[in-house]
């Protein structure tokens, strides 16, 4: 038997039914016995919506009023009555089973399933299988209009049936006409058989969207047919805590492919509010696009077309380990973040406890690691049911060892994304491609001991060049051209420090006196007078701390040849390091006096080592130039020649030998170093053998990681 079903909402009608999220207000149905060609009683039921504000189109087409709907029953009661009345009609006809038949798919997929999902009650099993009368009609009459262009009226006109809608109430005519169309299809001339109903998935199936070997084949063959681009959409504006099940619920009524929800992550591995969703066919995708700006909670979600290639980049897996981990069907995945690096599988299982057993024990755990095997602090866990997963989520921010652990719902696509991201992370981070801005003619940074610079410490991290200039006030007129240097940390973010070159030492002194502990935004900023040598000390790799400056590290491999001939000239940072300002980062060259006649040798810091150990510094132009260029500037071709011709000053006060110490504790001081060399002769001149610097620079050296000793 068939139950012919028709419905209407308080909003759009026809091809746009359900696209505006309006509630159901009318259901009309009738049972049809396909064997005896008998029909049951025709039933019409109004539905009371939460919002009784009817659209103009609804009022005009249906003739319904808010007053009449206000006396109706709510949807859950109407559906209960529907089941009872259909069962009674089937009993009268001597039948026990039935399948729904509707005019198209919109009523079932775009109205009933989404609305009942939002109202948190379940539809009976009969609403998960139905016949689409338009598809059945086109299969029976291939010469008729396409399925997309079919309506009840066009099908009736094709068969020569009466089409006067004014003779019956709204909904009643539609159901009676649909029943007449079905009887025509059952006639001896057609003898149509209803065999393949449309289905609605009960729940979203998790798991990998593609096996790892098929994804590898896709990469090697560059064939995009693996995932049809006509089946993929991009959802944007999702709540950050939404899971794949939440997204599947948003698209309730539409069939999402297995593992077809891929949550997108940002550069930090956190969800960015977007997801790519793959449906079983293009028809389902087109229906999903009609849910553009539908709501998930209080947020509206944007829905756009996407490509199969985009989906594979997010959801495709490349690891056999991941494929094996996700091979277990219908598992709930939980992501753990913030694990101690020493945490073992036993530690994690003990943390979760017996109330939330992990599927397969240790096999249900997947630790995320860097390419060299170091742990990242992330792990994924499989649970066999929702109850166990909920018990695990209750442990969110509980303590393991000395750290609190974050737990979130996750997806198969997120597992693959996270694993792919970490496994492709280089062991030595690299800088972005250098940006070469348009700059004025070359300029230099003073490197002497004249204290014509100031250091700003404690800047707000949001402070920019304009904030600094405003902070300086009238003193901006005394800043040298291109004399503002903001210091970034190794992550390329503001360190809270900046150096400013003034036109004279007197000007620097006055600025330090006037601006020290002056407020910038909600913080006071410390201003100290310093020299160009101290400034260069930082720009060349020295670190900043509360006590002042620490010298640049000496870990660079190949810093000098075995005979230490490199000390004859200064080390020059190459263009590849993308950190060189024209003649700006070349310190005063130091070489033994006895070797002054030796041919100059230029030693380069390796680019990767420079990226590891140097403070990345961005340079900003100062008045009167507009501060619009920020970036890394490559060294000009003449930089090496300038280094070779630079004036030499002695490094060593007297002939001797240098040794380099590595691996010192961070709190090591001069006393500990001298005790270490007890019994050996070193330069006795007030410990001047420990790096020769000006008095001002020496006064701010505190607890270095490494020292160069004589």
UniProtKB/TrEMBL annotation:
SMART domains: RRM. Coiled coil: none annotated. SUPFAM superfamilies: Ribonuclease H-like (SSF53098), RNA-binding domain, RBD (SSF54928). Its main location: nucleus. InterPro entries: ESRP, Nucleotide-bd_a/b_plait_sf, RBD_domain_sf, RNaseH-like_sf, RNaseH_sf, RRM_dom. PANTHER family: HETEROGENEOUS NUCLEAR RIBONUCLEOPROTEIN-RELATED. This is Epithelial splicing regulatory protein 2. It comes from Aramus guarauna (Limpkin).
